[in-house]
Amino acid sequence: MGTVWVEGEISNFRPSSAGHLYFTLKEESAQLSVVLFRRQALLLRFRPEDGQAVRVRGALSVYEQRGQLQLVAEAMEPVGVGSLQLAFEQLRERLRAEGLFDIERKRPLPQFPRTVAVITSPTGAVIRDFLQIVRRRYGALHVLVVPVAVQGDSAATEIETALRRLAEPALPAPVDLIVLARGGGSLEDLAAFNSERVARAIVASPVPVVSAIGHETDFTIADFVADLRAPTPSAAAELVTASLANIVESIFELRHRLERAARFQLLQARQQYASLRDDRIGQSLTVALRVRQQRLDDLSNALDAAIALRLRQARRPLDALATRTLRRDPQWRLGVAREHLAGLHERLRAAATRGLQATALAHRASRERLHRAMTSLVDARRRNHTQLHLQLAALSPLAVLERGYALVHTEDGTILRDAAQLLPGQLVLTRLGQGSFTSQVERIQPAPATSSGANAEPSTKTRKSTTKAQGKR
């Protein structure tokens, strides 16, 4: 019989795990088994169900194991309603039942998107109109164009892939909003946007999606599952930039309001300043100046005290070092004694002055006696000081040097007491009563052997004379 068309109602529909479809076509008085293999079943644009009236094209054959006549189908379409429309209605009802169209699931659009990705054809008029509106309303918005096919067999796959790639964290810049755009067309032209895989990719996208497909009267599955449906791609561009444009306008308006308020406050301040009396202003300035002068004095006194404290702290190690260095010098000791005596003199004089002032009104005669006693005490101290000075001068090695003696020591400061300590060619330093000089030893004369007892003293003088003569050379 060749290829035939058979029309009937689907009954006992049984899809297999391999993808083949088995069902029965029946009418009131007849029925026929039908098998639609996986390869042809994948080309169906709707999902067969029991009770659907369909028209099937295929070839008759006999299944020999059962001796059963059957129709091996090659194509199938619904009767009365187009396959695309039926597939659209079936998918819509199924996704609605899953809750993918619920308002609670949909996310709000970001108020300040920085990057918007537009999934559309790069050569159509849609993207040109979209970019023109964005440039006119908010030129700072970054638009990322993702080129895809918007119709044909590969369109659904490319759109799904684009949606998944825009959700990847490896993008150079994160996308804040996705716009799915296409111009108008027939139901066959919009078939990619009625695909279940595209609908589920929109739902799975972590980035909010705006659907802008076709004209205002066109509806697709993508419109129902998207977070927002725009009537046209141009309307989508206006919706995306609406918040930004409104914010810019609000900023300008607030700026003008702030300027007006500032001018009003400044005018009020000037009026209040002009209404004040001059004497009140002068009095206020005087009080403020006095407070600041007093504060300046307090800070100056505190600064002086802090500087004096720091100087005393810094002077302590220097004084200790000077004391350790100069403590062995007779002149330094004499100066210290003089300073001490001068300090005592000043303290005594101050004490006497305070005592005299304290008793001046009550006992003038006693004050005079006390003055004489203090004067006598000061004189005694002065005489004592003079005597100590003479004693120190007599005991000072410098006084001995002034009488013609010399002090000889090596370069490292060792005092020489015996000529045997010297070597020929050695440099020695000789200190006199006034100044010093350096000499070189040419010859050493050791002291002659002496006996103990009465001759010990002349031997000592001989050694001193020898040392003195050598130093002079």
Short description:
The chain is of the alpha/beta class.
Word description of this protein:
- The strands form three sheets. The protein has a five-stranded mixed β-barrel. Strands 7-6-8-9-10 form a five-stranded parallel β-sheet, with helices on both faces. It has a three-stranded antiparallel β-sheet with strand order 11-12-13, with helices on one face.
- Helix 5 links the parallel strand 8 and strand 9.
- The protein is elongated, with a radius of gyration of 60 Å.
- It has 473 residues and is α/β, with parallel strands linked by helices.
- It has four domains: 3-80, Beta Barrel (OB fold (Dihydrolipoamide Acetyltransferase, E2P)), CATH 2.40.50; 100-246, Succinyl-CoA synthetase domains (Rossmann fold); 328-395; 405-472, no CATH class.
- The chain is built from twelve helices and 13 strands.
- The chain has helices at 38-41, 83-98, 125-137, 155-166, 196-204, 221-225, 233-275, 278-326, 330-358, 364-395, 397-402, 456-472, and strands at residues 3-15, 21-26, 31-36, 53-63, 68-78, 115-120, 142-147, 177-182, 209-213, 228-229, 407-410, 427-431, 436-440.
- Mean pLDDT is 78; it is low at 451-473.
- Helix 4 (155-166) runs parallel beside helix 5 (196-204) and helix 9 packs antiparallel against helix 10 (364-395).
